[in-house]
Amino acid sequence: MAKIKKIDHVALVVGDIETALSFWRDALGLKLEHIQDAPREKSAIAFLPVGGVEVELVQPTSDDSGIAKYLEKRGPGMHHICLEVDDIEAMLTQLKEKDVQLIHKEPVLGDGGKKYAFIHPKAAFGVLVELYELP
Ligand code: ZN
């Protein structure tokens, strides 16, 4: 049976990273590790590590991205939680057997060889859940 290892990151949608940093970095005192451009997701992502988990601030860089539409519809806030799993294929098989609604039925190959897949929020009581398997 596939196993969840830890929370990898929590992703928050923001309209503007610099503005959001006034809370996350300046008020809370979290360290900004770096800001990365994610052209595939048409967004920029700020990484703020906390105890082995990362808070990610995701800002859309184009009006037609999924993230931009999400922001327009719901405003800034929680976007998804990402769980690291030891075997993503096995986990997806396990979830399919339990009729869990998936956005990705097969893992998607991401940057640096990591594999990911999203679980539909309808299956997870309103929370978008991402699964990660690191290489
Ligand atoms: Zn993520």
SSE order and pairing:
Blueprint: E1 4-13, H1 17-27, E2 34-38, E3 43-50, E4 53-60, H2 66-74, E5 77-85, H3 88-97, E6 108-109, E7 115-119, E8 128-133
Parallel strand pairs: 1-4, 5-8
Antiparallel strand pairs: 1-5, 2-3, 3-4, 6-7, 7-8
The chain binds zinc ion.
Residues 9, 11, 80, 82, 130 line the site of zinc ion.
Summarize the model shown:
With about 140 residues, this protein is of the alpha+beta class. Helices cover about 20% and strands about 40% of the residues. It contains three helices and eight strands; from the N terminus they run βαβββαβαβββ.
Write a structural description.
The chain is α+β, with helices and mostly antiparallel strands. The chain has one domain (4-133): 2,3-Dihydroxybiphenyl 1,2-Dioxygenase, domain 1, CATH 3.10.180. 22% of the residues lie in helices and 39% in strands. It has three helices and eight strands, in the order βαβββαβαβββ. The chain has helices spanning 17-27, 66-74, 88-97; strands at residues 4-13, 34-38, 43-50, 53-60, 77-85, 108-109, 115-119, 128-133. An eight-stranded mixed sheet has the order 2-3-4-1-5-8-7-6, with helices on both faces. It is globular, with a radius of gyration of 15 Å. The chain starts with a strand and ends with a strand. The structure holds zinc ion. Residues 9, 11, 80, 82, 130 line the site of zinc ion.
Radius of gyration: 15 Å
Q: How many angstroms does the end-to-end distance come to?
A: 19 Å
Strand proportion, as a percent range, falls in: 35-45%
Number of contiguous helices: 3
Order of strands in the sheet with most strands: 2-3-4-1-5-8-7-6
Query: Ligands in the structure?
Result: zinc ion
**Using DSSP, what is the number of strands?**
8
Q: Per the principal axes of the C-alpha atoms, what is the gross shape?
A: globular
Low-confidence stretches: none
